[in-house]
Each structure stands twice: as C-alpha cells, then as structure tokens.
C-alpha cells in the first residue's frame, strides 16, 4: 500500500465533527478537546468441550464501543450533547431532556492541507486522510472539574453498538493516501445520512438522520 508522506499525526492534524440526529448541522469541536479515547468493541471467544477431546470455539458478538473526550470550555455545549437540549446562550439545560443520537467523525490530515475559515476546518479532498466514523452514539456521562489554579475542564463519554437495528455497521475506519481514491461517500443507508464539504470555501453540508 502506498502511504502518504505523513509519518504520524499530531494534535494540529485533527478535525472533530459532531452532528445530532435531525439537526442537519455539522459542528467542529477540535479546538475544545484535549484528549480522545476510542475503546470497547471486544468480541471474545468461548469454548464448548465435547466428548472425545473435541472442542468447538465460537466468537461472541461485539460489545459496545466507547468514545471519550476530555474537553475545556466555558459554555454548555458538552452538557447539551449529554442531555439533548437545544442549548445556546441563555438556554436552560435540564436533566429530564432526552439525549439525541450523534454521529462523531474524527478526521486526521496534515495540518498544512486542512482548509480553514473561522471555526470551520475541513479536509482537503486531494490529500491523504484517515477518517473514523461513529454512528448512533449516545452520551452516557459528562463530568466537570475546576481547580483554583486550573481551568474548567471535563469529560464526556459516548456509547454505541457494533451494528444498528438493521445490521448496518456503526463504526467505520478508512485511510487514503495522496495517490489513492477519495474517501468513501457517506450515504443515508450505510452511514445514517450524507455529509459533504466544500474545500474551496470551507463549509459542511450534513444530513444525519440517526
């Protein structure tokens, strides 16, 4: 396989987008996040022992995946993701609200190739990129801490199953180099909604249905 010249990715090479189901809004979150952790999805095996010394080994279905972010922010944007509130300046968020499903996408590309316009950052379509997509995510916990000699920071955790109710995948991982074909086009069926972007005039166009 032909890989790009990027030996590794650093913090400045990351783009993090989150979409809430039915909102048709794609929001960049990378400048609020200090750490990313993706885990779970274990698919353990189990043995069944038979007479005559025979053994049947089978693999169990995958467990839930988790995505965790450590963040720094002064507003309520991460609490909004936890409780599904509309939020925004002057809006009260309540624990009785119902969290919406989210699509979280991690994009990794050399920072020199990323196209920027204000808070919007999109990947170049002609350069190598790694993309991890997590569909049908629900936030299960958000924590906040504040020390006198520090800043307000916190953690938010999301969970999602290996497949959805129709047996379509919820986790996608893909890498392209400068010389390979473009990233797979997101579809309504497989990825729960389309997502396109304009790299000339940086902008997102999303339609995540959940």
Write the layout of secondary structure elements.
Blueprint: E1 14-20, E2 27-28, E3 33-40, E4 45-49, E5 55-59, E6 65-72, H1 77-83, E7 102-108, E8 115-117, E9 120-122, E10 129-145, E11 153-160, E12 171-176, H2 188-191, E13 193-198, E14 203-208
What is the assembly state of the chains in this entry? single chain
Residue windows where pLDDT falls under 50 for at least 5 positions: none
SSE run:
EEEEEEHEEEEEEHEE
Q: How many domains is the backbone divided into?
A: 1
The total of helices stands at: 2
Structural class: mainly beta
Radius of gyration: 19 Å
Mean pLDDT over the full residue set: 90
- How many DSSP E strands? 14
Helix percent reads: under 10%
Could you describe the largest sheet, including whether it forms a barrel? 8 strands, antiparallel
Name the beta content range: 35-45%
How far the N terminus sits from the C terminus, by CA atoms, comes to 34 Å
What global shape is seen?
globular
